[in-house]
Amino acid sequence: MEAAAAPVRLWVKTEPFLVGALPVPPPARLGPHYLRKMAAYARARAAEGCFPRLSWPRWRHIACGKLQLGRGLAWLYFELFHSLLPWDPPRRLEWAEAVAACADADELELERSKLSVDTLQFLLFLYVQQVNKVSLRRSLIGEEWPSPRTKSPSLTGKSASENKNWNDQDHHAFVQSHLSDMLELLLEPEQLTASSHSTHSSLVSYEAVCALSFLIEGTVNKSRTVHPLHELALWQPCHGQNGYSKVSRAFSFPKLESWLRSCLTTNPFGMTACLKSGKKLAWAQQVEGTTRRAKIACHTRVVPEVFPMVIMSQVYKQTLAKSSDTLVGAHVRIHRCNESFIYLLSPLRSVTIEKCRNSTFVLGPVQASVHVHSCDNVKVIVVCHRLCLSSTTGCTFYILTPTQPLILLGNQAVSFAPFHTHYPMLEDHMAQVGLATLPNCWDSPMLVCKESGDTSVFRLLPPSDFYTFVIPFEMEGDTTETPGGLPHAYQKALSQREQKVQIWQKTVKEAGLTKDQRKKFQMLVENKFYEWLVQTGNRQQLDSLVPPAVGSKQAAG
Fold this sequence. Notes:
Largest sheet: 15 strands, mixed
Helix content: 25-40%
Radius of gyration: 26 Å
Oligomer: single chain
Number of strands: 23
Number of helices: 19
Shape: elongated
Structural class: alpha/beta
């Protein structure tokens, strides 16, 4: 039997959903009906820069003129897709330099006009935004809520189904449910009926299958080599199932769809596999007097084509610090961590922080995005390409980012401040992921949803409340100060505070205290300092920096 001779295993890639799907319901005008109209419009205007590649000016025209999206949102989707492309770090740094050199909006628009994307892949990317669409009908009958059928494992043993961007079972179900729609979106006009649907004799071009490789990849014969979909589809033993014809260089629509459905399986590098069979890491200690158990799992770089994954949950009342090869280029998920200080000082691919409280997160440079969801009173200190916030309360973000921070739904009392720390390898790590010090949009967040349109949900941290942050670990490296420096108002506040300390020291020195008076005065100051440490919670942070006993030493990984 041919199927037995060609055991191809396909799965839905993590990246387009985890990093590419904006974690918010998409605008109604990005629904399948309008995307089909957009596909026809783009193909009909190939000579104008719409197909096979779509330039920024043409997408701006379609998005603002046809789909009624705002210009900011149009650029957000275009730039979000563009950031998924495999640009090497030097090219990203060149682009950052060109944008930072723009003197005004017109120059910036001219620079953006040089960018273009693959039209068919971009259509699929826009379609994928539907993964976060809330269906009124489904919510009424209960399918939007966790059920035994939609549950996937989590480190806490509870359903992780609410985060669709992470849940590979949701990605798989989404593609299976919408495969026909997505294939029809990629068809040439002559292969469609008047109502933009396929027929039994429709042919899918090789270029369309190449575009579908944006979402799907796989292996042959349990090989450890991962191939894009279009390479596997062209493999001779598969032609009988997927209906490929060398004469037409195209696939039979019904046969290709059937072949894809039969070969699609769970992503072996996704969250489910990471939790089920990933390596468990003993990075966190078990805190005495609590039943909560910290759990950390990783799916290391099994194959070079796939980003590794690290998932940590329930780190409680402790300091966890790592700079590790396990973290380099990883997608990191930090879940239900409370009253802790977490330092992940390696270049990362993406970070999701969810359901955490009263904690501080100091992260190495993040190449893609940091998404903070459903968190209370956390501090995040990071250089990242993009920051997204949803359902946060009382959180502060010290950031350096070339894109506008995205304020999605349900946020309250958000504070933004300039990035204010460094560690010895920071600039090397920034270069590795292609992040520069300019442009820096830390102070110009974008309110993405109408419901989040109230600017009172955020503030810029007043310079009087601003203090630098010292990372208390020794490492090799050349970075000795905050990359890019601080904005003038914040630097001035620090200088004035430093001046006050010098005046105080001079006053004490000139007070002419006796040896006994100096000793009493020192005790008084130390007692007041100790009270302040306890009141502010900093005592816990200092205590947790003391190395554990040899028997409970944090494991390397």
